[in-house]
Amino acid sequence: MAATGVRLDLDGRPIKPMTICMIGAGGFIGSHLCEKVLFETPHKILALDVYNDKIKHLLEPETQTWADRIQFHRINIKHDSRLEGLIKMADLTINLAAICTPADYNTRPLDTIYSNFIDALPVVKYCSENNKRLIHFSTCEVYGKTIGSFLPTDSPLRQDPSYYVLNENTSPCIFGSIEKQRWSYACAKQLIERLIYAEGAENGLEFTIVRPFNWIGPRMDFIPGIDGPSEGVPRVLACFSNNLLRRQPLKLVDGGQSQRTFVYIKDAIEAVLLMIENSARANGHIFNVGNPHNEVTVQQLAEMMTEVYSKVSGEPPLESPTIDVSSKEFYGEGYDDSDKRIPDMTIINRQLGWNPKTSLWDLLESTLTYQHRTYAEAVKQAISKPVAS
Ligand SMILES: NC(=O)c1ccc[n+]([C@@H]2O[C@H](COP(=O)([O-])OP(=O)(O)OC[C@H]3O[C@@H](n4cnc5c(N)ncnc54)[C@H](O)[C@@H]3O)[C@@H](O)[C@H]2O)c1
Ligand SMILES: O=c1ccn([C@@H]2O[C@H](COP(=O)(O)OP(=O)(O)O[C@H]3OC[C@](O)(CO)[C@H]3O)[C@@H](O)[C@H]2O)c(=O)[nH]1
Hints:
Elements: E1 19-23, H1 28-40, E2 44-49, H2 56-59, E3 70-74, H3 82-89, E4 92-95, H4 102-105, H5 109-116, H6 121-129, E5 133-137, E6 165-166, H7 184-203, E7 207-212, E8 215-216, H8 236-245, E9 250-253, E10 259-261, E11 263-264, H9 265-277, H10 279-282, E12 285-289, E13 295-297, H11 298-313, E14 322-325, H12 327-331, E15 342-343, H13 346-352, H14 360-384
Parallel strand pairs: 1-2, 1-4, 2-3, 4-5, 5-7, 6-15, 7-12, 8-11, 9-14
Antiparallel strand pairs: 10-13
Helix pairs in contact: 1-9, 3-6, 5-7, 11-14
The structure holds nicotinamide-adenine-dinucleotide and the ligand O=c1ccn([C@@H]2O[C@H](COP(=O)(O)OP(=O)(O)O[C@H]3OC[C@](O)(CO)[C@H]3O)[C@@H](O)[C@H]2O)c(=O)[nH]1.
The site of nicotinamide-adenine-dinucleotide has 25 residues, from helix 1.
Subcellular location: Cytoplasm
Cofactor: NAD(+)
Domain NAD-dependent epimerase/dehydratase: 20-290
C-alpha cells in the first residue's frame, strides 16, 4: 500500500521520505492523517498521544506492511521529558493535541486554555530552537462572530459576502465578553497562532497554521455511554448520531439557526498532505480548510441527517425528529456561538491548488453508514439493559 516510485511535489521536485512527529495522532483527524501517510507515502510517523484506540488498526498486528513506519509513544505533552527528543528525531512536527469540544470551553475554561495555549508552548519552542518545521492545528473559531451579525437583521449588507466570508489575512477575530467563557478556546488558539507567527518573523521558525472548518467523518468523537462517558457532550455530528441511534429527537440549541460549512475528513486530509509535501508553498501561511459549498443551518443539518440515517439504517424517521433546547440548558452558563462560517478559499487555492469534492449529502451517507455499522448493535444492547435502581 505504501507509495512506490518517485513522488513529485507540485513544482515537479522529488519528495524525500521524511519522519513526522504527530502529536495528537490518536484523535479523529490524527487517525485519518496516519492512514493517509502510511497508505500513500513512504514517510515515517512518530505518533504521540495519551490514547491509541482510533489507530489500533494501524499499530496491530505488527506484520502489516507499514508496521516499521509507525511508532506509538503514549505521552502526555503536559509533562513528558521525551517530547523534545522526539521532535529532534523528526523532520516535521504536526501538533493536533487539544481540548476541542465546545461543551468544555465554558465548563472547563482553565483546562481549555492550558491545553490550547500553555501545553502547545514547548512544542513551538522546541521546533524553533531545533530548526524543525511545524504544522500547527488552530481553528476556524479564531474568527469568532461575523461582522454581519452586528448589523440590523433587515440590513441588505448582511447579504454582502464581505460581511461574512472569512479570510485569513483580512477578517478580524470577534469574540464575546470574558464572562462568555465559550471564547476561552478561540482566544487561546488565537494567542498560540500569534506566538507561532512571531517565532517565524523574529526567529525564522518554518510554520504552517491550519484553520479547520468543521471537518466531519468516521471516528469523530464518541457515542455517549458506548465509547465515551454517558454524560459527555461531543461535537454536533456525534450528538446527532447518538440521538438517531437511540431514536431520540435531535436537540437544536437555541433553535438551530447557527450556520456551518461541513467538509468531509477525507477531502480535508488531502489538503494536509499537500502542506506536508510542499513546504515551500505552505511555509509562513495560515490556511482555511473547509467546504464553502456545504453550508447549512444546524436545523437543516438535523433534517438531512435524519433523512440519510433512515436511508442507511432502513428505519423510518421519528414523527417529531427535532426538539428545541436552550444553550444554557444544553451547555450551561457562559455559552455563546459563531453565527456563520464560510471559508475564503483564495489562499489555499493559490498556494496548493486544493478544492474539496464531497457534497454534504454524500459525506453524511458514508459517515452515517459507518456510525450505524459501528454502533447500532451496542446501542441496542445498552438500551435493553435494565437500569440499576
Ligand atoms: N475536527 C474539526 O473539525 C476541527 C475544527 C477546528 C479545529 N480542530 C483542531 O484540530 C486538532 C485535532 O482535532 P480533532 O478533531 O482530531 O480532535 P480530537 O480530540 O479527536 O484529537 C485530539 C487528540 O489530541 C490528544 N491530546 C490532547 N491533549 C493531549 C496531551 N496533553 N498530550 C497528548 N495528547 C493529547 C487527544 O487524546 C486526542 O487524541 C485540534 O487542535 C482542534 O482544535 C479540529
Ligand atoms: O446536539 C447538538 C450539538 C450542537 N448543536 C449546535 O451545532 C453547532 C455546531 O456544534 P459543534 O460542531 O459541536 O461545534 P462548533 O462548530 O460550534 O465548534 C467547533 O468548530 C470547530 C472546533 O474548533 C473543533 O471542532 C469546535 O470548536 C453549534 O451551533 C451548536 O450549538 C446543536 O444544536 N445540537
